[in-house]
């Protein structure tokens, strides 16, 4: 009987220990590993290759140099592959542009 009693005590202590570890891990991991939004700052560098078109339709072709700074407060890395610019005027989408990374 003493062997069985010792086994029961060992199982209870182990179960309580595992429950405490899971509670501590959950309490610490959720706030620490919660994903945060990155801070994205776009600074225009300058205009290049400005070209105006004539009649009957007026066209404008401009190369806009930008420096985009991304501050990622998360522990993981940040990699972007979809490089797209959306030009929005007066609360409506006007044009989408793809751009290249230099």
From TrEMBL:
| Superkingdom to which the source organism belongs | Eukaryota
Any idea which UniProt keywords this protein has?
Answer: Membrane
Subcellular locations according to the entry: Membrane
Keyword Lipoprotein assigned: no
* Residues annotated as transmembrane: none
Q: Which GO terms describe its biological process?
A: defense response to other organism
InterPro entries from the UniProt entry: NDR1-like
> Where this protein primarily resides, as one coarse class?
membrane
**GO CC annotations, alphabetized:** membrane
The record ties this protein, via PANTHER family, to: LATE EMBRYOGENESIS ABUNDANT (LEA) HYDROXYPROLINE-RICH GLYCOPROTEIN FAMILY (PTHR31234), LATE EMBRYOGENESIS ABUNDANT PROTEIN, LEA_2 SUBGROUP (PTHR31234:SF65)
Q: What is this protein called?
A: Late embryogenesis abundant protein LEA-2 subgroup domain-containing protein
Species name: Populus tomentosa (Chinese white poplar)
